[in-house]
Amino acid sequence: MEFEAVIGLEVHIQLLTNTKIFCSCSTDFGAPPNTHICPVCMGMPGVLPVLNKKVLDYAIKLGLALNCKINKFSRFARKNYFYPDLPKGYQISQYELPILEGGHVEIFVNGEYKKIGLERIHMEEDAGKTIHRPDGSYVDFNRAGVPLLEIVSLPVMHSPQEAGEYLRSLRRIVRYLGICDGNMEEGSLRCDANVSIRPKGQTKLGTKTELKNMNSFRHVEKALEYEIQRQIEVVEDGGKIIQQTRLWDEKTGMTKPMRSKEEAYEYRYFPDPDLVPIFIDDEWIERIKDEVPELPRQKLERFVEEYGLKEEDARVLVEEKSLADYFEEAAKGYKKPQSIANWILSELLGYLNKENKNIEDTLIKPNHIRELVELIDSGLISGKIAKTVFGKMYETAKSPKQIVEEEGLVQITDRSQIEGIVDEVIKANPKAVEQYKSGKKNTIGFFVGQVMKKTKGKANPKLVNEILASKLEEL
């Protein structure tokens, strides 16, 4: 029997607000433990939460970007459970009246676009962080009360690859919107996966397991691959899938049972009596709509249409908004934007990736990329010399023109000068001349190499080839 996987993802994104969702404590990451806390986020008696309006703005912005229904009326609910990192004994979340419903995330997989439907998006506060050490377990409450949006997809993904691309697409969008930095390694984007299997062709959902402890896209894909295969083997052996939460173990490459999976009623949700309901009017939505930037898919299509870029190149450039902006600045007013893109993608990203750096870290100004391409196109330097110049640009932040002048790297285009060097090379290599005359025409490559060596790569390659071909044929 052939089985089909059914996957739904629950993604939590930490919002880039300066303060927490219900108090004025800082949200800065990496502060010493328990230094960004107050009576409100610690759940002390006699204090009341006050909603951070920026959280609502960011939720509306995401809803507009993902084509969600923005509920004009919503409210917070208390999600009751006991855990060491939850100081109040409940989490302020949303339940029956979330701020956003529906919508979709568009992914590109197997050469085509697919819309992954969303069930809902709601606001909630983060919990603290439990730290386990050999000498005991500790809780850092700095994270308690940090604002989150939980994005719940419909169970419409059928492969780990689709799930991975969904996460990448979602991260691109929230980064473009400027509402979350999307750093999984710092916990600002976290993902739980619900997965089940069913015989192919059936529509009824099987018993699901929830997967946790996945802190990279690759871990999500690997955990899903393992869990799907595990469930298939259980069913084929005559067993039954147990509804449970399982932890991904990176070291063993396996998922391990953690606890039985809770149902919603076990959390005893009820409206939070300390927070008033939320009313959103059309004017508010229109104001936020003006703040929504051009999104990755729209930018990709524009890069292909406006700049004539190859789609695969445009796809890489729009991966990060800062990289796309860098390209646009570099290509401004230049007739060959594809050449600009080539240098950014092959050379600049090559250097940055080697040092594990981002585009923001480069010393090279965007207009210096354009200047370098102009030097090549004008014939002042060759492509080979340009690579040398680029290396010095990367190290020093100098302009290509300055480097070319200082290093004396201007390309030799004087025909008579090149002819003289070609004559010397031919005279010094009689054996190679005989080989060429005997029909081994590819020997011309040897002569080109010798000329370039003599000129330290400065001779115009096109002119060198032309002169060599002419002189060798005359012999």
From TrEMBL:
Q: For this protein, what is the EC number?
A: 6.3.5.-
The UniProt keyword set, sorted, is: ATP-binding, Ligase, Nucleotide-binding, Protein biosynthesis, Transferase
The GO terms describing molecular function are: asparaginyl-tRNA synthase (glutamine-hydrolyzing) activity; ATP binding; glutaminyl-tRNA synthase (glutamine-hydrolyzing) activity; transferase activity
Q: Under which main EC class is this enzyme filed?
A: ligase
Which GO terms fall under biological process for this protein? glutaminyl-tRNAGln biosynthesis via transamidation; translation
Domain called Asn/Gln amidotransferase: residue spans: 325-472
Q: Which family does it belong to?
A: Belongs to the GatB/GatE family. GatB subfamily.
Q: How does it assemble?
A: Heterotrimer of A, B and C subunits.
Q: What is this protein called?
A: Aspartyl/glutamyl-tRNA(Asn/Gln) amidotransferase subunit B
**What is the organism of origin for this protein?**
Hippea maritima (strain ATCC 700847 / DSM 10411 / MH2)
Which lineage is the organism of this entry classified under, starting from the top rank?
A: Bacteria, Pseudomonadati, Campylobacterota, Desulfurellia, Desulfurellales
Q: Gene encoding it?
A: gatB
